[in-house]
Structures are given as structure tokens and as C-alpha cells.
Amino acid sequence: VQLQASGGGLVQAGGSVTLSCAASRSLKTISVIGWYRQAPGKQRELLATITAVGSTNIADSVKGRFTISRDSAKNTVYLRMNSLKPEDTAVYFCNKLSDARSGRWGQGTQVTVSS
């Protein structure tokens, strides 16, 4: 299965962005999809996950500001990011949890938050 992240761009601090992750097959066939980010000079960070049955989890570091959701009809997972801060600037990726653990990554989408 291929997952493609999109929707990044330049946003002012305090603003919001919704990222999209389009899957090449039904979300119900993918055990867990995660949203990750990697800032310059930092390790990749897991932000949120959603399971095949729709259960979600948000990392403590972004809880209250980020939410994960999906549209099964569109085979798309979303990451809504509110109250953005300059430190949220990073490349954002979506990936199957299993591929992430195996070190297989696709292209991400850049989010830049200006102060």
C-alpha cells in the first residue's frame, strides 16, 4: 500500500493546517497509520495514530492541538493542527506503523510556521 502526505505549506504562528494522507487501498485493510514529523537536527517523532477500526491516539507533546481523523470513503487520513508554533516546523510524514518500524518511508510534506 502507498501512502502520500500532502497539504503542508507556510502558516503563521497561531494558525491551523490540515494535512492529508491518501492511501492506495481501503483504510480498513491497514492495521495502523501514523503521522510523524522530523524537524531539522531532530529525530523523527510519532504524533498520532489511527487503527483500521478508527481508534485514535495522540502524543502528549501535541495533545489538545492536533487531531487525527479519517474519511474511509476517500481512503484518506487527516491531521488537523491548531495553534501552531514555530517549533512545529518540520517535514510531516504519514506511514503504516509496520513500514515505519522497518525504516521504509515515503515523501513527506513540509510545514513551516513563521513567528
Account of the 3D structure:
The chain is mainly β. The chain has one helix and ten strands. It has one helix at 97-102; strands at residues 3-6, 9-12, 17-23, 32-38, 45-51, 56-58, 66-71, 76-81, 90-96, 109-114. A six-stranded mixed sheet has the order 2-10-9-4-5-6. It has a four-stranded antiparallel sheet with strand order 1-3-8-7, with no helix packed on it. A hairpin with a 4-residue loop joins strand 5 (45-51) and strand 6 (56-58). It is globular and about 40 Å long. It starts with a strand and ends with a strand.
Strands, helices and their partners?
Blueprint (H helix, E strand, L loop, with lengths): L2 E4 L2 E4 L4 E7 L8 E7 L6 E7 L4 E3 L7 E6 L4 E6 L8 E7 H6 L6 E6 L1
Parallel strand pairs: 2-10
Antiparallel strand pairs: 1-3, 3-8, 4-5, 4-9, 5-6, 7-8, 9-10
Please supply descriptive tags for the structure shown above.
10 strands, 1 helix, mainly beta, 115 residues, 4-stranded antiparallel β-sheet
